[in-house]
Amino acid sequence: MIRDLKGIYIIWLRDIKRFFRDKPRLISGIARPSLYLFILGSGLSSAFGMFGGREGDWYIDFIYPGILGMIVLFTSLFSSFSIVWDREFGFLKEILVAPISRTSIAVGKALSGSTLSLFQGIIMLFFAPLLRIQLNFFMIIKICLLILLTSFALTSLGILIASRMKSMQGFQMIMNFLVMPMFFLSGAMFPLKDLPKWLEYLVSINPLSYSIDAIRYVMLEDKTFLVNPLYMNILVISIFAVVMISAAILVFNLTD
To answer: Would the pTM of this model clear 0.85, i.e. be above it?
Structure first.
């Protein structure tokens, strides 16, 4: 038990150190969502104001939680890229023959991805005052807990996929195919109410939509865009996290 806990810590620490030593990865992880927020968000806000209706500034407030969800999605799923990288360079075999269970390796990977997502999410929260979004201490704690839960679930999904991938090119192709639909169907960019039925179905099976719905409600304290009750969003994300980490552990134990 103690050996497995130490193994989880070592796997977690290795991925954290690799991330902070990779400066381009750190910078790009913040630069991409910042571009979406300040350029796309500002441009669309002007468009909403031009065409009437609500004041255009509302869209910046609306998209901010969505961009936060974008950070969690990208960081969590792509954090499992290290599994494929280690397999191609032979390091994964050395980890697998170490005197620790494969379950502890999978859990360590899931926790490291969650930590990295939380770190980048916290950095993004520093932009809130620039957008005139008021966040108190308890709101920040709630948002961080939601980020941790979501990122743990999504990182587990990434581990599940990476465990069966043999090449970095194949992993990147599947991730790109998976990430963009999940992002655009999450409600990050547009409200999820009054959608066509076929689009409602796609949104309902997207776990990220429940996370962004919960974060948006906690952050803005506004039920205008709330699709599901907060407890239901948390319940769905929690169930998804349990299913994904269980499946990831099962598949990782079968990895050769």
So the answer is: yes
CA dihedral 69, 180, 246, 111 (to 10 degrees): -50
Convert 197-224 to b/e letters by CB count within 10 Å (16 or more is b).
Answer: eeeeeebeebbbbbbbbbbbbbbbeeee
Residues with Cβ within 8 Å of 96's Cβ and at least 6 positions away in sequence, in order, are 102, 105, 255
DSSP 5-70: HHHHHHHHHHHHHHHHH-HHHHHHHHHHHHHIIIIIHHHHHHHHHHT-SS-TTHHHHHHHHHHHHH
Q: What is the pLDDT of residue 174?
A: 83
pLDDT level of residue 51 (50, 70, 90 thresholds): very low
- Which of 129-138, 145-154, 198-207 is predicted with the least confidence, judged by mean pLDDT? 129-138
Question: How would you write 137-192 as a 3-class SS string?
Answer: HHHHHHHHHHHHHHHHHHHHHHHHHHCCCCCHHHHHHHHHHHHHHHHHCCCCCCCC
pLDDT band at 63 (very low <50, low <70, confident <90, very high): confident
Sign of CA dihedral 147, 148, 149, 155: positive
| Per-domain boundaries in the chain | 2-253
Q: Which amino acid belongs to residue 199?
A: L
Cα-Cα-Cα-Cα torsion 182, 188, 157, 169, nearest 10 degrees, comes to: 60
